[in-house]
Amino acid sequence: MSALDSLLQDQTLLPDYYKNQSDNALIRQISTIKKDLGSHLYLPGHHYQKDEIIQFADDTGDSLKLAQLSATNKEASYIVFCGVHFMAETADILTDEHQQVVLPDMRAGCSMADMANYAQTEVAWEALTEQFGDTIIPLTYVNSTAEIKAFVGRHGGACVTSSNAKQIVTWALKQKKRILFLPDQHLGRNTAHDLGIPLDEMIIWDPIAGKLEETDHPEEVKVLLWKGHCSVHENFRMEHVKQLREKEPDRRILVHPECTWEVVQASDDAGSTSYIINQIKNAPAGSKWAIGTEMNLVRRLIQDNPHLDITSLNPYMCPCLTMNRIDLPHLAWSLDQIVKGSPVNTIRVPITVAKDAQKALQRMLSLV
After folding, report:
1. Do residues 144 and 160 make contact, with C-beta atoms less than 8 angstroms apart?
2. Between vectors from CA 167 to CA 179 and to CA 131, what angle results, nearest 5°?
3. pLDDT by residue (tens digit) across 294-344?
4. Rounded distance between C-alpha atoms, residue 261 and residue 319, angstroms
């Protein structure tokens, strides 16, 4: 059983009282508790959270930035992380022992992170090292479980973010001939391609089938891509790009590198969430944009930049379903339980896992 499975098994369900409250009543309750707890509470909110949650965030950002900010906030006894489970795990790994990390709803997971579990990774490592010998260094996207980060840390690898992936992959390929990139094949492929590695030197490991795809030249392979993906970003497809190019050729397409290689190649630009935000922030008035990333963020960019013409690359895109599990009832409940002295949904990464996961995180941080 994974650490996440154990947490889900032990979780307490949201009481009906909070489900039956009006939004206004919940907003008043959350505001009051935040004020009463003061500096003892820190509430980070990921960019993909709904506006109803972001309004209470002490800081907004990507997962690593928020985990680092949590770690530097020594006053806070409670970190109520408004994101998904792997983000709360990272915050727990980096914060002090006296600090408790709370995830308002334990069901707020990440489909990408769940596509690589520890048992699968051990199987893959045994098979790949048997075939390629001691020529592989593992890397994992921060969008992965603590157990996967720990595996990578134990084997001399590092974490990566979408902002620093090129830098970390470059470093890794100086350490070993090959990398195993977990769990997002698209970020791995797009990063390696940007660094000049041809597609025929990349190959996919399928964790369900437990094998590599076939290749005529295995000795030339440099990048072993885990067959995982972001269910949100895979929904930006070439048909959306083609339709937009036909209707509005002057609209710039800006996407996240978790999109497929074909979509990234067909777009005008690609970059991390912070890169996308900065590009829009610095865009000239009147410019037209189609953005390929999570819908809550796209809506917020539209709202905050009325001088720009912004749309989603996929007009039928829905927000990230697991991110949206954090809502006003769950946030109010989690804060109320803190006040009562019996916090729920606390995240505690086992110490042995945390130590190895921290190695992977610290290797990354030492390089950027």
Report:
1. no
2. 5
3. 999 999 999 999 999 999 999 888 888 888 899 999 999 999 999 999 999
4. 22
Q: What is the dihedral of CA 176, 207, 184, 84, to 10 degrees?
A: -120
Cross-strand partners of 269: 254
pLDDT at 128 exceeding the cut of 80: yes
Identify the pLDDT of residue 316: 87
Give the up-direction half-sphere exposure of residue 322: CA atoms within 13 A in the CB hemisphere: 18
The reply to whether omega before 183 is within 30° of 0 (cis) is yes
Average pLDDT of 182-207? 98
Rounded to a whole number of angstroms, the CA Rg of the chain reads 21
Residue 319 confidence (pLDDT):
82
Looking at the DSSP assignment, which residues form a beta bridge with residue 254? 269, 291
Q: 185-194 vs 165-175: helix axis angle to the nearest 10?
A: 80
Do 104 and 345 contact (CB within 8 A), yes or no?
Answer: yes
Structural domain 113-230, CATH architecture = 3-Layer(aba) Sandwich (3.40)
DSSP 38-82: GGGEE-EEETTS-HHHHTT-SEEE-HHHHHHHHHH-TT-SEEE-B
Class of domain 233-312: alpha beta
Q: Where in the chain is the domain with CATH 3.40.50.10800?
A: 3-109+322-350, 113-230, 233-312
In a 3-state reduction of DSSP, which class is residue 83?
coil
State yes or no: pLDDT of 64 exceeds 80.
yes
pLDDT at 6 over 80: no
CA dihedral 96, 60, 267, 86 (to 10 degrees): 30
Q: What is the pTM of this model?
A: 0.92
Spatial separation of the C-alpha atoms in residues 137 and 156, rounded to whole Å: 7
CA distances from 269 to 27, 254, 272, 279 (A): 38, 5, 11, 10
